[in-house]
């Protein structure tokens, strides 16, 4: 199982971080040691002073594929969950300034909490109209709709599969909408798809 992720897929989030709008999806990966399941707490690491939440829809791949044409790519989605792409923004900024890779800023232990429940893809009438949101200590912080993505699920899967053979069980974080921000110990994050709460993460 691999964890792929797409950066800069929502225009308003690109603006809030003063990034360039990409011509192709910005791809990075996280190791499986980044995964947090079962609503396990997130332990604030001592190597960063600026950990940010990024709520994202997460695709679970249902079958193996390589060079998948975009028009068939949606059939590779088995189910959709929600996750948080925790980012050490200070380390990421350092890397960006020097044009260096983001691995430690994005892939550190516990940086990928993912909901236990994934909703079967057939339960969604329209993949380009899915609402999701994140609250911090009960207050709304992020609201997204897949209609606002620059690159659709199908495009992302097709694009990724040019470079990486996709395997059943792989996860793809599909980008965060605007409203990212820092967490501190004691914060509790809740993430929802439509009105269903699927993920809770306590920061310790
Ligand atoms: Mg992200």
Could you describe the 3D structure shown?
- This protein has 204 residues and is of the alpha+beta class.
- The protein has a single domain (3-202), classed as Fumarylacetoacetase-like, C-terminal domain (Fumarylacetoacetate hydrolase, domain 2, Alpha-Beta Complex), CATH 3.90.850.10.
- It is built from five helices and 15 strands.
- It has helices spanning 11-16, 70-73, 89-98, 103-107, 153-163, and strands spanning 3-7, 26-30, 35-36, 51-53, 55-61, 77-84, 87-88, 112-113, 119-120, 131-136, 139-145, 171-173, 181-182, 188-193, 196-202.
- The strands form four sheets. Strands 2-1-12-5-6-9 form a six-stranded mixed β-sheet.
- The structure holds magnesium ion.
- Magnesium ion (MG) binds next to strand 1.
- Residues 5, 7, 54, 56, 85, 175-176 line the site of magnesium ion.
Summarize the structure.
The protein has 204 residues and is of the alpha+beta class. The protein has 5 helices and 15 strands. It has one domain: Fumarylacetoacetase-like, C-terminal domain (Fumarylacetoacetate hydrolase, domain 2, Alpha-Beta Complex), CATH 3.90.850.10.
């Amino acid at each position: 199982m691999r964890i792929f992720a797409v950066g800069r897929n929502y225009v308003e989030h690109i603006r809030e971080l003063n990034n360039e709008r990409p011509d192709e999806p910005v791809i990075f990966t996280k190791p499986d040691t980044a995964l947090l399941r079962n609503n396990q707490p997130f332990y604030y690491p001592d190597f960063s002073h600026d950990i940010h939440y990024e709520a994202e829809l997460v695709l679970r791949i249902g079958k193996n594929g390589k060079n998948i044409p975009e028009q068939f790519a949606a059939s590779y989605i088995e189910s959709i969950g929600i996750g948080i792409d925790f980012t050490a923004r200070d380390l990421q900024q350092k890397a960006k300034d020097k044009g260096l890779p983001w691995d430690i800023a994005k892939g550190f232990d516990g940086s990928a909490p993912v909901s236990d429940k994934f909703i079967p893809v057939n339960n969604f009438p329209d993949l380009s109209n899915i609402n999701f949101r994140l609250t911090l200590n009960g207050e709304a912080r992020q609201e997204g709709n897949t209609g606002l993505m620059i690159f659709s699920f199908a495009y992302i899967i097709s694009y990724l599969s040019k470079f990486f053979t996709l395997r059943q069980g792989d996860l793809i974080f599909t980008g965060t909408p605007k409203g990212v921000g820092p967490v501190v110990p004691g914060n509790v994050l809740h993430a929802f798809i439509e009105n269903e709460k699927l993920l809770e993460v306590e920061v310790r």
